[in-house]
Design a protein that fits this description.
The protein is of the alpha/beta class. Among the domains are: 76-230 and 484-584 and 628-656, 3-Layer(bba) Sandwich (FAD/NAD(P)-binding domain); 232-306 and 428-477, FAD/NAD(P)-binding domain (3-Layer(bba) Sandwich), CATH 3.50.50. 34% of the residues lie in helices and 15% in strands. It is globular and about 70 Å long. 52% of the residues are buried.
């Protein structure tokens, strides 16, 4: 929304005062975004495990794995055969395993193998153990399988240690511990046309001083559940590896440096220390208040401020749990849908707001997850601008309230101004805290705002910005993860796994040549018996567990029907006609997501790479293919349920394996 006041007014010639205000705001957003664009795009970052410096690479190692206990387990044998190999042991991998077991598809002791680079179950909750860690979606909606486990979360937003323990609880209840291969990196997954099996090539780590093992697991089915934020990254800051003080990434917190434990944020190791934090995203929002309590001086280096709303954390009330939350069968799915309705601008008048938190105050988040409220946006300049203008208007009350909240909390006007977010709600992950902004009122906390540029360089003793060195004793990298939209969302690129299907065809190359190619976002022609948790060409929710929950449910249904059709020995593959028809349907709806064109660079836009315009029609079509269902999760779920109703799994070819 950047061309004229007519755009703000949906095309009318006489703009109102509100339209003029929206136009001025869009100009401010555009100017702020321009400060942050870099021609190198994603190239400004490097995955920790691929950094040129050995010191930085070691920061990616697992600090939590119990190598002695894992090495004492009976080893998985090279060449072992399994019906299902699940790549990922977070909530997505656990949901795959539980649904397969509950469907009766994996009853034998060797039917399932779960492979993960971590030292245990939990996914992001295994790796992330920083002080202040909580889920940002309420735990009653976020924690999967609460009805099945009977577990009652301790608070509305469960802390990280509880989420980690809950993952292990799921694994225990469904007897998955002896089915897991941890500390194991999958290098490649190759379809063997002769055996009609997948060969999963794995490097199993054994811990310091131990020789790693190279294994190949054979699988009838491979299921990818490796999450969306799995590879910590760091900006390419000149001299970063030369910093002589303690240095670590928030995804691998070092309590030996800070003191405390994941369950006790008493960070006495930072007393008397000058501490620097690079980054002000969702992680820093939780970390900074804890660091501020103990550091002698805390310097927060900011490129782009976060949009920070109220949190409202509170313990779970047992009576409320029994009478209002877990009140009937199916309550958790109903609650997930209820939360999602507010974010898709689909809540009905008089509807009960079950969650009633700050997430439910942002209907304009529908810009990136869709809405059932409006027709398909036609791909004409007039209709696109009308659509964008409508969402900007919808977003205005929320963004103004968040900026006003910042101003009301932060006492220093100059600091408050720098902490205000100048971009639409949907451009970055919204944040929630009743402590973060308040931390900047403390005398030992300093905001170093880089005005969109980022830190210039590092020295042996600190960080440099705008010609000034900031001496530090400890440096913490709160610099996030590789965006899940890397490689146009290819499951191969995103997971870092080479995937080769029929005839040695590369999934990555297919994505590069054709763009996203799936049916319902979960499978691709040429890659039989391979399914992945949905990301592109599907629907998304702010609650990623809801997205994965819907995806695993759909995938297991397809497998169950295919196995029944092939007497328990199926080879199931989506047809090219079905995936192309689905791609056309997704492309038809891509206009809805034109709102991201006004976003500041970040993970939503692949650091601005997805915003680059091209005269190549084929490239533009590829981008459109990588879009989402534009009506939100409730509509997509209904579509899947209608698709599954007759049990025919239309669009798939199913044969019995030889």
């Amino acid at each position: 929304m950047t061309g004229s006041t007519e755009a703000a007014n949906g095309g009318n010639a006489a703009p109102s005062a509100e339209d003029l205000k929206l136009f001025e705001l869009s100009q401010k957003y555009t100017a702020e975004a321009a400060k942050r664009f870099r021609p190198e795009g994603l190239g400004q970052f490097v995955r920790l495990k691929e950094a040129g410096s050995e010191r930085l690479r070691t920061l990616a190692q697992d600090p939590w794995a119990d190598h002695a206990a894992l090495n004492a387990k009976e080893p998985v044998t090279d060449g072992s055969k399994h019906k299902f190999v699940i790549l990922g042991a977070g909530f997505g991998g656990l949901l795959f395993a539980v649904r397969l077991i509950e469907a009766g598809l994996a009853s034998g002791p060797d039917d399932i193998r779960i492979v993960d680079a971590a030292g245990g179950f939990g996914g992001t909750w295994w790796w992330n153990r920083y002080p202040g860690l909580h889920c940002d979606i309420e735990s009653y909606s976020y924690m999967p399988l609460l009805e099945e486990t009977g577990y009652v979360p301790t608070s509305k937003y469960a802390p990280g240690p509880e989420l980690l323990e809950y993952a292990d609880r799921i694994a225990t209840q469904w007897k998955l511990h002896d089915k897991a291969l941890f500390r194991s990196t999958v290098k490649a997954t190759r379809w063997d046309d002769a055996t009609q099996l997948w060969n999963v090539e794995v490097t199993e780590g054994r811990g310091p001083g131990e020789q790693s093992r190279e294994l190949t697991l054979q699988a009838q089915y491979v299921l990818l559940a490796s999450g969306i934020l799995t590879n910590p990254q760091v900006p390419k800051i000149a001299g970063l590896e030369t910093f002589t003080g303690p240095l670590f990434h928030t995804a691998r917190w070092d309590y030996k440096v800070t003191g405390g434990t994941p369950k006790d944020a008493t960070l006495t190791g930072l007393e008397g220390k000058r501490v620097g934090v690079i980054g002000t995203g969702a992680t820093a929002i939780q970390v900074v208040p804890k660091l501020a309590k103990y550091a002698k001086e805390l310097y927060v280096f900011q490129r782009t401020p976060s949009s920070v709303s109220w949190r409202g954390q509170r313990p779970t009330d047992p009576e409320e749990w029994k009478t209002k939350i877990a009140r009937k069968k199916g309550w958790q799915r109903e609650r997930m849908l209820n939360l999602d309705s507010y974010l898709t601008d689909g809540a009905q008048e008089g509807q009960e707001n079950m969650v009633a938190d700050a997430w439910t105050e942002m209907p304009a988040f529908s810009a990136v997850i869709g809405s059932p409220k409006y027709p398909i946006v036609e791909p004409t300049p007039e209709k696109i601008m009308e659509h964008v203008g409508r969402l900007y208007k919808l977003d205005l009350p929320r963004t103004e309230a968040v900026r006003a909240r910042t101003e009301s909390i932060v006492k220093d006007p100059e600091t408050a101004a720098k902490l205000k977010a100048w971009y639409p709600t949907w451009c970055k992950r919204p944040c929630f805290s009743d402590e973060y902004l308040q931390a900047f009122n403390l005398p030992n906390v300093y905001l170093v705002d880089t005005d969109g540029k980022g830190v210039d360089s590092a020295t042996s003793s600190g960080l440099v910005f705008d010609g000034k060195e900031y001496p530090l004793d400890v440096l913490i990298l709160s610099t996030g993860y590789v965006t899940p939209s890397i490689g146009a969302g290819s499951p191969a690129v995103r997971t870092g796994i080479e995937i080769y299907g029929r005839g040695g065809k590369s999934l990555d190359e297919k994505w590069k040549n054709q763009g996203a190619s799936t049916l319902h976002g979960v499978c691709s022609n040429g890659f039989p018996n391979l399914f992945f948790a949905p990301l592109f060409q599907s629907a998304q929710a702010s609650n990623n567990v809801f997205t994965v929950d819907v995806g695993t449910e759909h995938i297991v249904h397809i497998i169950e029907k295919a196995e029944a059709m092939a007497s328990g020995n199926a080879l199931v593959e989506v047809t090219s006609e079905a995936e192309e028809a689905w791609a056309l349907e997704i492309m038809r709806r891509a206009g809805w997501f034109a709102t991201v064109m006004g976003c500041t660079p970040g993970y939503v836009t692949a650091e601005g790479e997805s915003l680059r315009q091209s005269d190549d029609q084929m490239e533009m079509m590829k981008k459109a293919r990588g879009s989402q269902w534009d009506e939100g999760m409730a509509s997509f779920l209904k579509l899947l349920q209608e698709y599954r109703a007759d049990g025919s799994i239309r669009g798939f070819e199913v044969v019995s394996r030889a």
